[in-house]
Amino acid sequence: MQRTTVLQEDWWKLRAEATWGNASAGQDLVALRAENDQLRRALAGRAVIDQARGMVMVLTPCGRGAARNLLVDVSRQCDTRLPEVAAAVVAAWEGKPLPERMQRALRRALRRFGAEDRGRDCSSADESSR
Fold first, then answer.
1. To 5 degrees, how large is the angle CA 66–CA 85–CA 83?
2. Alpha-carbon Rg for the chain in angstroms
3. pTM score
4. Pairwise CA distance, residues 23 & 18, whole Å
5. 88 neighbors 98 (Cβ within 8 angstroms)
6. Is the distance from CB of 68 to CB of 49 less than 8 angstroms?
7. How far apart are CA 76 and CA 70, in angstroms?
8. What is the pLDDT at residue 7?
9. Cβ(108)–Cβ(75) under 8 Å?
10. What residues contact 29, with CB distance under 8 A and at least 6 apart?
11. What pLDDT, on a 0 to 100 scale, did the predictor assign at position 61?
12. Which single residue of 2, 37, 68, 72 has CA 20 to 30 Å from 55?
C-alpha cells in the first residue's frame, strides 16, 4: 500500500515539474504515459490470450503449453497478432462467427495437433509393449 502512495507522489512531482516548464520532466512524463499504455495493452492482450487458451484446453484435452502453441500456430498461419486471434476465438465462443481464414488455420492446427497426439500415443504404446 505504501509503495503505491510513493508512486503516486512521484507522479504528482513529475506532473508539477512538467507544468512549470521543465522540458526534461515533461519528456519523462510522456515516456511514462506511453509505457503505461503499452503495459495496459499487454495485460489486456494477456488476459484474452489466457481466456482463449482455457477454451482450447476445454475443447481439445491438452495442457496449457499445447493450447498456447495451437493459438500461436493459428496466429502465424493468419499473419495476425496472437491477441487478435485470441479475441476472435473468445468472440466465436460467445456466438460471433470466426473469420474464414482463422477457421481454416484452426482446422489445420487441430489436425496437426491430433496427428502429433496420436503419434505420441503410438510411440508410448510401442514402448510399453516391449
1. 90
2. 23
3. 0.61
4. 7
5. yes
6. yes
7. 10
8. 53
9. no
10. 14, 15, 18
11. 86
12. 37
C-alpha cell of residue 60: 481439445
* pLDDT by position in tens, the chain (length 130): 444 444 555 655 555 554 555 567 778 888 888 888 887 877 776 889 999 999 999 988 889 999 999 999 999 999 999 999 999 999 998 899 999 999 999 999 989 888 877 666 554 444 444 4
Cβ atoms within 10 A of the Cβ of 14, count? 16
Give the span between the Cα atoms of 56 and 71, in whole angstroms. 8
Identity of the residue numbered 2: Q
DSSP string covering the chain? -HHHHHHHHHHHHHHHHHHTT-HHHHHHHHHHHHHHHHHHHHHHHHHHHHHHHHHHHHHTT--HHHHHHHHHHHHHHHT--HHHHHHHHHHHHTTPPPPHHHHHHHHHHHHHHHHHHHHHHHHHHHHHH-
A 10 A CB-CB count for 31 gives 10
